[in-house]
Write a structure and sequence with these properties.
heterodimer, A: alpha+beta, 3-stranded antiparallel beta sheet, 4 helices, 3 strands, B: alpha/beta, Rossmann fold, Hypothetical Protein Yjia, Chain: A,domain 2, 2 domains, 8-stranded mixed beta sheet, 7-stranded antiparallel beta sheet, 10 helices, globular, CobW/HypB/UreG_nucleotide-bd (chain B)
């Protein structure tokens, strides 16, 4: 547990540990990887009014336009919290949602 | 499924509908010396006991069968039973079993059992899902599939299918069933039992050579086979898969549609990784991906085989493509730990 914020250590996530390994050991590569994840997350979350940011290199902050904020540990936490905060269902098979993503990816 | 060198105890989940011969098969397998280090948790008692003499004694306490196996029934929830068994093993009250077989109730969807093993912080530290085996009764399967959707879920979730009672089935029934099972779950090994006798290896956990076989099967099979609302299809990608984007996409797909993803199994060419990565999920349960030592062939296309219920394959493919496009090559870095 972090002595300052009282956050319990994560129990591991299925996305952990895949890749060629250097990034986990090299701090700047790890930061770069987290930045990429934040950017990808925001491409999905911005259209529903949410913003994701890195917090202390250990957690993520999810913020709504209203200012409501919640901490996110893993991707498993992200989606239910994003739906709660936005009041919307995020469906990766919704054609309209995919149109929005395609526009963001161009 | 358990990666090489994994010290955790493999869990063999034996599922199958009521009366499909699970206990008969278990009885046969437990006589084999290879299973003398097994512990067995039984979720129900049917008409066939593992050992008629011991049925009465199996009420609460784990007992030692003549074969050396430990056996007990699940009285409370599964996680309590598994923890209790492990505690007794650690205290030396029961032999140090090296595999755990869970025989499910015939009405069970196996996904919650997998979820218990994968999600319980204590259990997942000591145990790992090894293999899911489902028995299918050749006499009653056709009618059962229509009436009991959980039978299809059991078949879809299985790594191995054992067809029982073929000797009692009408002529032509078993070949028809075998074709149906093969189309429904193209990646599963299918075997036939004769009065409960099977090759005990069918209840041994997978090894890392298995993806060679099931990827080869997925490449050969009809890419889209339909069984009412349940269908299987293969999603292929010639481009390396950006792991961050994949994690985002797949976690969202499982979050929103996990109940309809009866089984997902694939081999990915992950961007930045020299070795292929095997993924495996049953409904809401995603197993830790494994790096495999090498590719099954020169073909390095990523392939994911889905068995889904009420999901449109074209939409799944489109969704995958849309998410992967979010990750531009310039932004990709080697995958790492958290998130």
């Amino acid at each position: 547990m972090c002595g300052l914020c009282g956050i319990l250590g994560g129990g591991g996530h299925w996305t952990d540990g895949v890749g060629t390994g250097q990034a986990a050991a090299v701090p700047w590569l790890r930061r770069q990887a987290r930045r990429e994840r934040v950017a990808l997350g925001n491409a999905v979350l911005h259209p529903i009014g949410l913003t994701l940011s890195d917090w202390q290199g250990s957690e993520f902050l999810l913020r709504a336009r209203t200012g409501a904020t919640t901490m996110v540990g893993t991707l498993t936490d992200l989606w239910p919290k994003a739906e709660r905060l936005s009041g919307r269902i995020i469906d990766p098979l919704d054609p309209d949602f995919l149109d929005t993503l395609d526009a963001a990816g161009r | 499924m358990p990666p090489g060198g994994d010290a955790r105890i493999p869990v063999i989940v034996l599922t199958g509908f009521l009366g499909s011969g699970k206990t008969t098969i278990l009885r046969h397998v437990l006589r084999h010396p290879a299973f003398s280090d097994a512990a067995v948790l039984i979720n129900e008692f049917g008409e066939v006991g593992l050992d008629h003499v011991l049925v009465g004694a199996l009420d609460r306490e784990p007992v030692l069968l003549a074969s050396g196996c430990i056996c007990c029934t699940i009285r409370g929830d599964l996680s309590r039973a598994v923890r209790d068994l492990h505690d007794r093993r650690q205290r030396g009250e029961i032999p140090r079993f090296r595999r755990l077989i869970i025989e499910t109730t015939g009405l069970a969807d196996p996904a919650p059992i997998l979820s218990t093993i994968a999600a319980d912080p204590v259990i997942r530290h000591h145990f790992v899902v090894g293999v899911i085996v489902a028995t299918v009764d050749a006499v009653h399967a056709e009618a059962g599939f229509k009436r009991y959707p959980q039978m299809l879920r059991q078949v879809a979730a299985a790594d191995r299918l054992i067809v029982t009672k073929s000797d009692l089935a009408l002529e032509g029934t078993t070949p028809r069933l075998l074709r149906r099972l093969s189309a429904l779950n193209p990646q599963a090994d299918i075997a036939q039992a004769s009065h409960g006798a099977i090759d005990p290896a069918l209840l041994q956990p997978d090894d890392t050579t298995t993806p060679r076989r099931w990827i080869a099967q997925s490449a050969e099979d009809d890419p889209s086979a339909s069984h009412g609302a349940i269908r299987s299809f293969c999603l292929s990608s010639a481009d390396p898969v950006p792991w961050s984007a994949f994690g985002l996409w797949f976690s969202l797909l499982v979050h929103r549609h996990g109940g309809r993803l009866l089984r997902v199994k694939g081999l990915l060419d992950v961007a930045g990784s020299t070795s292929p990565v095997a993924i495996h999920a049953v409904q809401h349960v995603i197993h830790p991906p494994e790096h495999l030592p090498d590719w099954p062939s020169d073909d390095r296309q990523s392939r994911i085989v889905f068995i889904v219920e009420d999901l449109d394959p074209d939409l799944v493919r489109r969704s995958f493509t849309s998410f992967m496009r979010l990750s531009t090559p310039a932004s990709q870095v080697q995958a790492t730990g958290a998130f």
